[in-house]
């Protein structure tokens, strides 16, 4: 740096700064500093990664090896191991595996009360929407004295993610059947009924709807083409399917039409 210092004598400030910046020693030190900065790039760990670090340490992996694997300082690894009870408890209770910030809940009682409400509603076969959950959360917040709780859409998204609640479409008729009663019937009554019959003589039948004029809702099209569709036909037939227990015999489909005396069967004797 002596050469750079000597260049300052006998020239103005800006010229001296240009000479200093272009000095090989300064350029080299600046590049080394950039390399150090790139090496120490911030690497934020998720909750799942913290739990994985704890598990690897307990299996005998050294702190230095863990530090190189996750590209974090050894002090960070030591801190995670020292606070392993906290991370494991959060992971087992309500923690989001991909969460990177340890942000505490607004109120634990509010969270647990809402989870119980969701479970009871689903056990009673009551459909839940986001608006219903938010409104119930506001009611719980008022009863528990939680201040500054709005129950916004952002809170709803995070709550559903924390508790692993997904939005599903209701389908099927299984909710109208008492599963406790049917399980007991299948375990005790059904075996006694079919014990005297062979599998090929035991048939099962069920009905379904056939929309025979309904077109597919997806199609291949050119990328430059705007894809539009019309209304779907709702004309349907009720079809009953039947087959035996071992699948060796499938009965013809039994179709139930809408007309008592269809015109196409006129003058045809059964």
Automatic annotation (TrEMBL):
Its main location: nucleus. The keyword Nuclease does not apply. One of its GO terms (molecular function) is DNA binding. The keyword Ubl conjugation does not apply. It is found in: Nucleus. Keywords: DNA-binding, Nucleus. One of its GO terms (cellular component) is nucleus. This is Uncharacterized protein. It comes from Aedes aegypti (Yellowfever mosquito).
